[in-house]
Automatic annotation (TrEMBL):
Keyword field contains Acyltransferase: yes
Protein name (Swiss-Prot/TrEMBL): GNAT family N-acetyltransferase
InterPro entries: Acyl_CoA_acyltransferase (IPR016181), Bact_Acetyltransf (IPR050832), GNAT_dom (IPR000182)
Keywords: Acyltransferase, Transferase
Species this chain originates from: Actinomadura harenae
Pfam families documented for this protein: Acetyltransf_1
Positions of the N-acetyltransferase domain: 6-155
PROSITE patterns, per database record: GNAT
Superkingdom, taxonomy of origin: Bacteria
One Gene Ontology term of the molecular function aspect: acyltransferase activity, transferring groups other than amino-acyl groups
Amino acid sequence: MSDDKIRIRDAEAADAAVIAEIHMTSRSQTMPYLPPQTHTREQVTQWVRDVLLKQCRAWVAVRDAEVVGYAALDGDMLDDLYLRPDVRRQGIGTLLLDEVRRHSPDGLSLHVFQQNTDARAFYERRGFTVLDTNDGERNMENLPDMTLRWTPDTTR
C-alpha cells in the first residue's frame, strides 16, 4: 500500500457523482468484455443516489480527501466493490472488503463475471469459495457469472 493514509467512511448522498464516476470508469477500463455502457453519467449518478445509497449500506475509501473506491452491501450480498483503476493493487480493495466483512458476521456472498479473473483471484485469496456458476441469465449484461461465498472462521 502507498504511504498515503486511506480512511473508510460511510458513503453519503454527496458522494453519488464520484461513486458513479468510479463505477463507470472501473467497469470500462478493467472489464473490456462488458457490453458498451448505455446509461449516461447523470443516469448512473441518479441510480447511485436513489437506489444504491438507499437500499444498501455503502462505504467509500478516501485518500487525501478524495474518494478512490466504494463498496455496497445489501443484506449479506456484496453488490459492488469498485476502485479507481489507478489505485488498484494498493490494498484499498482489501480495506473496503474488511469493512464490509465487519458488518457481515454470518458471511458474505457476491456475484462476479466468470471472465473477471482479477476479481475472482482477489476474492479467492481472501477466503471466498465458489457456490455456483450461471450462464448469465441473472445479470443485465447476460454474461456467465458465479456466486462466491465467504464464511467467517468461527474456530478462532
